[in-house]
Write a structure and sequence with these properties.
By secondary structure, the chain is of the alpha+beta class. The protein folds into two domains: 117 residues, no CATH class; 83 residues, no CATH class. The protein has six helices and nine strands; from the N terminus they run H-E-E-E-E-E-E-E-E-E-H-H-H-H-H. The strands form two sheets. The protein has a six-stranded antiparallel beta sheet. The longest helix is centred in the last third of the chain and has 31 residues. It starts with a helix and ends in a 6-residue tail after the last helix.
């Protein structure tokens, strides 16, 4: 049953895909870190032939969407979440509160693929740090997860208390007194730290259910 619903969801997403206008992808420049993200995708087919794609996602757009380039030619675009048919399979893209957090290539064949952000982008910088300084990178990742856990432990009781104060809930279920009452400045600091932690994980395309809870997005690895 779940498989049926996933397939139906994928079909609906495929219907959203529109043909590209054929324009050429421009090189990613340093100032583009404020306007859009760019990912490069290489698919290696069974005969070892390689096919190259690029995914571009604009910031601050009216609707969250991605543009797909085959080589450097614009071939398709879709709102997110997107399921775009390509090279013997489907390219699935999802986003959360901190931007794109999942890119998958689904196929029934034994083809492989690799995804990497443009080296000039913030994600590219983060990946470069991971490659050159893996110990520091892993420590940052662990710290981000610990921050998310701490923010959940400190924030959830306070949220439950606020919800329990809704008149209907208070009358029919009762109120809940949080054992944790933090000053406003500390809650703001925790919120900022949580935002940085969620962004750090999203930069690495690392899935974590806590990010989904903290940012309101859907995360999968």
């Amino acid at each position: 049953m779940f498989r049926f619903f996933r397939q139906q969801k994928r079909r609906l997403a495929i219907k959203k895909v529109k043909a590209g206008d054929g324009h050429t992808l421009k090189p990613y420049r340093l100032w583009h870190i404020f306007t859009h993200s760019l990912f490069h995708i290489t698919i290696t087919k069974e005969n070892n032939e390689q096919v190259h794609y690029a995914l571009k996602s604009r910031y601050f757009a009216d609707d969250s969407s991605v543009d797909l380039y085959h080589g450097k030619t614009h071939v398709a675009y879709s709102t997110l979440p997107a399921s775009i048919p390509i090279e013997n399979g489907i390219l699935e893209v999802k986003s959360g509160g901190s931007g794109i957090n999942q890119i998958r290539y689904r196929t029934d064949k034994a083809e492989t693929f690799s995804i990497y952000p443009d080296k000039r982008s913030v994600r590219g910088w983060r990946l470069g740090m991971h490659r050159h300084f893996p110990v520091i990178s892993n420590c940052l990742g662990l710290l981000a997860i610990l921050v998310l856990l701490a923010s959940l432990a400190l924030g959830l009781p306070q949220i439950v208390e606020q919800i329990s104060e809704i008149p209907w809930i208070a009358e029919h279920i009762g109120t809940f007194q949080s054992p944790i009452n933090l000053p406003v400045w500390l809650n703001v600091a925790i919120g900022l730290a949580t935002g940085f932690a969620a962004t750090e994980r999203a930069l690495m395309l690392r899935s974590h259910w806590l990010i989904d809870m903290e940012t309101g997005g859907s995360i999968e690895d």
